[in-house]
Amino acid sequence: MSTVQRGAFIVIEGLDRSGKSTQAALLQSRLQNANVSVKLMKFPDRTTPVGKMIDAYLRSQSDVDDRTIHLLFSANRWEAVSSIESTLAAGTTIICDRYAFSGVAFSAAKGLPLAWCRSPDVSLPAPDLTLFLDISPDIAKSRGGYGEERYEKEELQRRVRNIFHQLGDELPKDGAGRWAVIDAGRDLNTVSESLWHEVAITIHDCTKQDSVGKLWQS
Q1: Does residue 3 sit within a domain?
Q2: What is the pLDDT along the chain (218 residues), one digit of tens a residue?
Q3: Please, how many CA atoms are within 13 Å of residue 169, restricted to the half-sphere of its CB?
Q4: Which CATH number covers residue 146?
Q5: Could you tell me if residue 212 is inside a domain?
Q6: How far is residue 172 from each of residues 35, 65, 127, 128, 177, measured CA to CA in Å?
Q7: Number of folded domains that form the chain
């Protein structure tokens, strides 16, 4: 029986204004041009009932306790689990703009315990590859639109960056489930080529026999 390739689960993480959404869209287009079935996802998904509550919070239109909003972000990801799993099983690669690492990093940066922040997302589908777009908060601050949402404050972003690096240090740098740090302070095309190199390797390695893992399960 011939091997049927499953889709790869690829997550793009980073500080606000690090170029995640732009690079995710470029990756989607490049994969489509290479005849790879691909779906673009983004968290939070602001279209769901939970997502609409999150959207109001991020736009500073409502105030929610830090623990409550953290659990809402996690619930927003759990809403999508069946879709993620069925999409990957059907052979479609997912490019995901933000995921559980963002949820943990931002909440822990606000002072919540790291272990508590991680616990609601244990057993979510684990990415095959996480691309961390690393950029200094002062460079991110200089980019258009900075400061429009609640979390776009330079000192908070510095704390978030440190926690992202801490989370990344726990993950392998090679093979399945790896974390790749990409210097996002470079020009658009150079960053795009760096991402493409990592993605091409991951898609090649994903097969139907390699079921998607579970996040943060020992």
Answers
A1: no
A2: 345 689 999 999 999 888 999 999 999 999 999 999 999 999 999 999 999 999 999 888 989 999 999 999 999 999 999 999 999 999 999 999 999 999 999 999 999 999 999 999 999 999 999 999 999 877 766 655 545 556 667 888 899 999 999 999 999 998 889 999 999 999 999 999 999 999 999 998 886 557 899 999 86
A3: 6
A4: 3.40.50.300
A5: no
A6: 29, 34, 12, 11, 7
A7: 1
